[in-house]
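sry for the spam today, last one i promise. struct tokens for design, 212 residues
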């Protein structure tokens, strides 16, 4: 059953976070580019409390309410949209869309494009989520790729999963799978590391232990 995070809950989370903060203002205010000597070089911020906690982090771009709000020393991050990378302290993450990668703390090299994509990710690294709610529940899983609305939405700790298509591998939580949403393979069954998107004959041979 589909369990997308309702926009009202995302809004509620952002508002509650803002209310409990006792924030000090960044000088200069985070409106446009700023850097050394007060902060790390090459940073750009636009939006209320965007990059508010920055200290020595470099080459970060934050655009939107609370985007990269907690980042202090993280480098080369890009956040565009309300709440994107809100709790991030790590490096080289890219989030586009409201609440994308909102919960990320120390996960590196993640890319989330779409509202609530990789929303719950905390320490997982090298994940790619394209589509609303793609990899939404992922927390510590790494090396996952989800392309399509709600693709791999239920995945939490699974690694090395690839899902292509709307709701592809929707129910996968901790497995290791490959799925293609095509006419021949709308939903892949579990095949370990076998390439499910290959021809049916190819997959049958792999299932029986033949690699060639």
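last one done:
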């Amino acid at each position: 059953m589909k369990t997308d995070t309702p926009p009202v809950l995302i809004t509620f989370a952002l508002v509650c976070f803002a209310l409990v903060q006792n924030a000090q203002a960044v000088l200069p205010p985070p409106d446009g580019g700023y850097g050394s000597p007060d902060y790390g070089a090459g940073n750009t911020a636009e939006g209320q409390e965007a990059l508010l906690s920055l200290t020595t982090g470099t080459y970060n771009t934050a655009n939107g309410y609370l985007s990269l709000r907690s980042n202090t020393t993280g480098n080369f991050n890009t956040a565009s949209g309300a709440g994107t990378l809100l709790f991030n302290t790590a490096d080289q993450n890219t989030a586009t869309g409201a609440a994308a990668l909102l919960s990320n703390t120390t996960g590196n090299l993640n890319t989330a494009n779409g509202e609530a994509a990789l929303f719950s990710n905390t320490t997982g690294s090298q994940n790619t989520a394209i589509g609303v709610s793609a990899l939404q529940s992922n927390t510590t899983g790494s090396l996952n790729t989800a392309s399509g609305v709600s693709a791999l939405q239920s995945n939490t700790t699974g690694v090395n999963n690839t899902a292509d298509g709307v709701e592809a591998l929707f129910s996968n939580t901790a497995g290791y799978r490959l799925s293609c949403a095509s006419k021949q393979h709308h939903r892949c069954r579990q095949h370990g590391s076998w390439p499910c998107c290959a021809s049916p004959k190819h997959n049958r041979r792999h299932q029986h232990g033949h690699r060639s």
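The chain is about 10% helix and 15% strand. ok im logging off now
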